[in-house]
Structures are given as C-alpha cells and as structure tokens.
Amino acid sequence: MLSFTSCIELIDDIKINNDGSGTLKYTVNLSSSKVKVNSILALDSVNGVRVPSISELNERIADFQKKLDAKTGISNVTIESDFEDFIFKLRCDFTSVSALQAAIKDVVRDELRDKNVPELDAIWLNWDGQKLVRSIPEITVKKTTEFQQEDIALLKQGTYTSITRFERPVDHFDNGSAQISANKMNVMIKTNPHALSQNTSLLDNTIYLTPLK
Amino acid sequence: MPCRKTHHFWTTQSILHHSSKIRGYFRIFASQSVEPYKVIRRPYFQLILALLFTSSALDVFGQAMTEVNPTTKSETLIPRDAVTVFSLNNISLLQKISLDDLVRYEFMEEVQQELFDGSTTGKTLKDSGIDFNQKLNVFYGKGQNYEVSGFTLGIKDKQDLFVVFDDFEKEEDLYPGIEFYSSYFNHLFIKGDAALLVRVEPNMDKIDEVTDSIWYARGNENPYYNEAYDDFDMEGDFEFEEIPEEDTDPTDDELEEDAIEGFLDEENILEKNYYELRDSVQVMLEMQYLSALCEELFVDRVNLVNSDSRFAEQLTHTSEGIFYLDNSRNLQKAEGMWYMQTMFPSLFEDMKELYTGNVILGDLILNQASVEFKMEVRYGEELGSIYQKMNDSKFDKDVLKYIHKDNTAFFSYNVNLREAYEQAYKVIMPILSSEKNARMSTNVLTIELLNEFINKDALFGTYKGSMFGTFNGIQKIKTTKIEFSYDEETFEYSEREVEAEEDMPIFTVGFSTERADIPDKVLKHLSRLTSRFKNMGTYWVYEKAILDAADLYMINTNGLFIFTNDADLAMRHANGYGKEALSKKSAKRAKKSGFMYAHIDWARAIERFPRDFFSDRENEIIDAMRGKTGTMELTSSKTSKEKTNLSLVYNYQGVYDNSGKYLLDLLNSIYVISK
Predict the structure, then answer these.
(1) Which of A6, A87, A185 is facing B612, going by the closest CB pair?
(2) Which of A65, B143, B324, B440 could in theory staple to B85 by disulfide, Cβ–Cβ 3.0 to 4.6 A?
(3) Which of A125-134, B105-114, B223-232 has the highest mean pLDDT?
(4) What are the domain boundaries of chain B?
(5) How far apart are CA A105 and CA A114, in angstroms?
(6) A39 chain-B contacts, CB cut-off 8 A
(7) A168: pLDDT confidence band, cut at 50, 70 and 90?
C-alpha cells in the first residue's frame, strides 16, 4: 500500500542504553493521504495488486507483532494501528543491537517466505559501547528500487526522520546533515523517502559518545 | 500455461474421437500457451478495428471510385439470429477521408502488420482485397442454445483477401454457389462478391444438458464423484507432493506421444470419459447449429435484412454507420427467462408480447465539426404507454440554480414516477392476475394490498423520480492530518491535528421533492444518533462521511433534496448559484430536451485533471489531448407511445476538414505518445 500512497511520513527512533540494550520505535504516518488510502481500501485491486481489507491488515499486523515478540532478546512489542488517520506505531525493547537485527531479519525472512535474502545479511547497526555505526537495512533500499517511477516520484513529498538517542552525551558524529539536540544526547537526520532511494547512504552515521564516567 | 495433463487430455480425445480437422484444432490449442480466443480472434478483430478506423473518409479516393453493383451485397449474409448489428457505410465514409490518407497514420502501421502477418512489404489496407464499395457489418446474437458472432464484407479481390485470411483452409462446398473455408472455430463463406465470417458457440448450459443426458443414459455415475475421496482422512494432516515444473513446454510431437501412451493406458479405451464426451457434444452441437444457420441463410435465403423490415429500412440510411439492437429477442432468449418460461408459460407469452417491437435503431453521422450518434428507441404500444406516462414530466427549473456555469459535466433526468406506477399497474397487473398459479396469486394479492395501504401521495411526493447531477472536476478539499512536531531539547515528538488539503472529485446529486418535511424528519433523527450529523441552518453536514475524510452536505430547499461534497455550494449557495448559475442558453437546451439531458465538457475536464493523480506518461497523453477535445451532449425527444429519440453529439474545436479526420488525428496522437 505504501507504494500507492503519495505523502508518507516515516520516523525511526532508536534509543541505545549504555549497556547496549534499548528501545526501537518505528512510526508510519499516512494521515495526509487518508482520502487516497481510504479510496484504495475501497477497491479490490490496484494495478493488478490485490488490496487487503482492514481486518486482513489487522491480522497481518498482529501476526508480525507475535512473531517479533517471540524472538530472543526482544520484549514488550506493541503495535498501535490507527485506521482513522492511518498512523502505525511499532515499539519494542531489545537486549542488544545484534538481538534486534537478528529478530528483524528472521521476521522479515518469514514474511517474505524466502530464506535466501542476501540483503538481510548486512549489519546496519553496530555498537561497541563508545560509538554507534548505523545505516539503513539494504532490503529497504531494494524494495524502493522495485517501485515504479511514478511511485518513486510520489515519495518525494514524504519525509523520513531518523533519531538516535543515548543515555550520555554525544561527542561528535560523521554525517554532516545530522542535527544534535540541545541536551546533546540525541541525533536526528531528516530526509525524504525519494532522496533516500536515490542515495542510500544519506542516513549513514557514526556517532561517537563521550566516555562513560 | 496449461499443465501437461491437460495437453494429454485434449490430444487424446482429439485423436480418438474427432475428425482430422478437429484433431488439428485441438493439437494447436494444446501446443499454445495462450488462450484459444487470442489465437483465433486477434487478426480478424484487427481487421474490424482497421475498418472501423476507416470511420472517416475521403475526397480524392472516394470520388475516384466507380460505383459497382455487386452480385451479392454483404448485408444479405447477416444471419437472422443476429440481435445486434453495427454496419459501416464505407461509401459514405470514404468520401470523408481517403484510404491513402488513412494508411499514412502511424497507428495503421501496426494494424497492417497484424493483417499481413508482421511484414507489410509495402502492403496496406488497400491491398486486403476488401471491396470498400460495400458495407462492413459486424454482428452478434445470443439465443437460448448458442451465440453467433462475426462480420460480413464485400470482396474486391479474393486472392488478396486470402493474404489476410491466410490461415483459412478450403473445405468441401456444401451449398451451391457458396465457397466454404475454416480456421479453428471460425468459418468463412463466400457468395459472389460478399463474404461472411462467422463463429457459432453453443451455450454451456446446453452442452451440459446434452452431455448429462447421454452420460446418465449410458448408466454412468455422477462424473464429479471421485472414489479417492472415500479414503480421505478429514481429521489427518494434509500432505502434498510437490510436482516439479517442466523445464520446457512440450512440443507437438511430445504431446502426440503422450496422447498415444494415454490411449494405451486407458482401462476402457472404447468408452469416453465425461469430459471427452462433453467436448464431443460441444463440437457436434456447434456443427448442428452452424448447419442450421447455413441452411436458413443459403438454402431458404432468409437473412436479417429480409426478415426484419426495420433493419432493412435502417440500411437505406446514408449515414456513415447504422446500429440495430433487437431488445425483444434479447428478452425472449435471455437465459434468465428460462425459469419464467418453464414455471409461468402464459405469463412468459404475455411478457413477450409486451416487449414485442422493442428495438433500438441508431445512426452514426460524421459532420463538419461534430460526430453524432442518433438513436431511436422503439417499443410496443402497451410498454410505450408506461414510458409515455413516465416521461411526461415537466422540467424542474429549480435544478438549474444549482448547476454552476463553469461545471465540467451535468445531467438532468425528468420522470413522473407516480404516473408511471399507475400506468404500469394498469398494464402489468391484468397480465399477472391472469396467471393461474398459486404463487403468482399470492404475489398479486400482496401487490394489490400494498397498493391500497401505502400512502402513494407521500411516497411519490417525496421521491418524484426527477433528479440532476453535476461534476465539477477535482478540487482541493479541506481535511485534517496528524503532524509530528519535535522538541529541540530532546527531539521527543508529539502529535497534533492540523488542517490539510487533498484532491477529491466534486459532485452534486439532487432529487425533486414536494415533501421537504419527510427528508427533514430523517435528518433530524440522524443528528440525534451521531454528533457528526449537524444542522447548519441552510444545510446539514455529515462530517467525514466520505472516505472518512471529507464532509457530505445536504441541502433541503426549493423543492430539492441535494447531496454534495462541495462546501462552497452548501455554505455560500444553498439557495442556488444566482448569477453564477448555468447560462440561459445552456439552461434552455436542457429544458428543451425530453426526459434526459447530459452535457460533458471534455476540454474542461482534461484541464481539471489533477496532474498528481497520473504518472508522467499518462500526463503526456493528457497533454496531447489538450486542444483536441470538445463537448458531448445527450438530448432526448418527447416520448410517444411508439418511440423515444436520443441523440449524442460530440462537438470539437479546431480546424479540420471533417470529424473523421479529427477523430483519426486524436487517435493517432494518443497512439504515438503511448507507443
């Protein structure tokens, strides 16, 4: 459905605790396209692609939540679905970034019903206690390259916000487009889904923290 | 791709049970990875398409052509079973645009390549052997037993014609003076200078009926019952064996080998299974129906022209094309009528009589700056009396106040449901009452009681039957969206609802009513049920009623009950647009029309298409159409007991020799851009 939607807002928000555990929040906001989304949901199919019903979407969301919650190192998984404004919020706690990545890989592989997805082998989060190296999963980029040109053009109107939070102040970071919050503990990068599909390294960042006292 | 098992089945049965020709058909089908329809029909539809494109014709070529009197006219080969016919008057067409001009269009290249099997080698439609001095007639008919479709045309040069019809094989001539050719399930008959290409397809119900009859008469069990189901454990786990896919499609030879193996493997090789029998029945029925059609056409010399004087008269018109649709036969032979025919035979006969004479006749006329499609809807006197009463309704002038002068499209529909109801009651109730049947008597009694008890004044006063509608293109409408705002200190975000705009088609639909109090009662009750339903004084609003985002407005005034999503109309023009309403000239045309009027401004519609809704490619096509579009107007005459006339006129702007060239230019622009 995302590929049929003109204006989309994505927020990925990850908090890394000093011990490497943390919380991931992922938000999809389609409220500015709700007329279009509602009109799509009223159809059986669009461009030959079957449109799921709201109950089917709810089922799939619940299934995703159940699968993720069952993974080692993942807990407190919640997904809020607002089918009035079309806002979807995922939240989960993780014991380590490697546990988070492994869980996401497993669930995505299961969802795609394909065990052989090489893009999932990549590491997009790396935490050594002093610095965080982050990028975006290659699978996301692969999906956007599969979009039709006109769908990609529509994504230009969207926004993608990536926020990384820590328990102690940030010393410095590599990505020149990133901003640091006034309390020095959070880093944010804003772009749009189209720009991201054209340049996947836009969100790449290595964030160095001040030494642990 | 059909599975190998299917190939095996088709080929086996073809070898066992059919003539060599039919066997050939099945082998070809079996080896094709596409549907038979695509194999069979495409080239001939391309030909029809090419000839329909000729719907615009010449000064040079037409005048140069010499009028000849063919020995057989193409229209005399139209079977009587044809219920719908579209006939192109090539002579008239070719006076508007020449074949020389036509074949130069880019889109014709593809059509001609299709006709001449990919390589035109300098050949054009002109080399197809078709006699453009004769009419081209495309027909279709569906009866209770079979469907018949095809076309008839004149022949100038038989040799050239068979370059186009190159997959047809000569068959034994069955009727004196008639040459017979076949290709798959298509049959070509040539009589003198005219040809009939026809396809007869038995209806599935008929095939099943005959097959079942033979199958059970032979002492067979239910063909759909499978003994394997007896051992099926419904409680157990399901296990499926994966069947590896074939690397390559089987060749014709492989298929034949499979068929022979299958033939030898069969336990009872002399007994057809149900599906083999069914296919044999289908082939035999097709032959039987085709034979009956040919007997009637070539031996009895009965065709649609000499069996229906209305069609014969229509053919005398000098318009560029004529249209014929016999609705009464559609009713009589409709599959759905089978129940009525069986259960209530006398009622069926009465209904048939009621529908006698129900026919639609049409003319396509290419004028200097417009294309016109005139239709005459004819019916029998009794049915006509209902239509006449229904359409005898005064135009509701109040609707004009609510149609904006800059609208994209609008329609008005004026009927008097009360009068129509009373007349229908008078005509139909005696027919229903005469049926000696307990069930029908109960229905008649129910209708009579309802007629007595229902307050018809209130019912038909609330909904008189007249209505109007407008479409004002796509507009930005106010909606709300959720916005995330970030705190600079922590980048924590919070949600807030803000105003937004989205594209939405703007429409208005209104009904004439004498009882504003009744819709008002409904609205008041609804407002008690939900706070989203509000009385705003001059109008009502149902918030977020459309797609959970846009408001729906209701205006109950001036004898009209209006639904719209146009906030401007509801908030500022609840009593009408005043000076911004439809111009007097346009209003006069709408008022002058009979029970129906419609107007579409294509140029304005295209201007108002939101570019965001379409891809870059689609926008290019839309851009190509800008300046090459016009207006479309549907008008109707006063309804009499015998007929109602309808006229659909497409007017265009720009300088063109005639509308034929205009249409071809428009088609060509779209073709070139979308190529």
Answers:
(1) A6
(2) B324
(3) A125-134
(4) 40-204+286-321, 467-674
(5) 11
(6) 547
(7) very high
